[in-house]
Design goal:
It is a single chain. With 107 residues, this protein is of the alpha+beta class. It has 3 helices and 3 strands, in the order H-H-H-E-E-E. The longest helix has 8 residues. The two termini are 29 Å apart.
Length: 107
């Protein structure tokens, strides 16, 4: 027996058609709260047995980078040699919505 089911993004969107289509899906956790207030949404979530919704929000951005390339041609042929580097910084927040308690229960 499985104690709970985890829906993947596409499976969840399909089960909640049309509320999670690209043109109507919430863009952030505040939009999720508004969506949960719309008629039919919580009823559909009850039907498919969803109690918690985990919303991941954040981004990854390039903070620095550089590099160079050098090329040469000679009687035996030619070639190029280069090197590149970059640094990235990520920041993500997971918000857990408890649908039975109708509130954000963890962050």
């Amino acid at each position: 027996m499985v104690p709970f089911k985890i829906y993947g993004e596409q499976e969840f969107a399909d089960a909640l058609f049309p509320w999670f289509e690209p043109s109507t899906a919430p863009a952030n956790s505040a939009g999720l709260r508004s969506l949960l207030e719309r008629p039919g949404v919580t009823e559909r979530l009850d039907q498919i047995g969803v109690r918690y919704v985990v919303w991941l929000d954040g981004n990854t951005r390039k903070t620095d980078g550089g590099g160079s390339i050098a090329c040469a041609v000679g009687p035996g042929g030619g070639g190029c040699f280069g090197v590149g580097w970059w640094e990235k910084q990520s920041g993500y927040v997971a918000t857990v919505w408890d649908l039975q308690a109708d509130r954000s229960s963890a962050r």
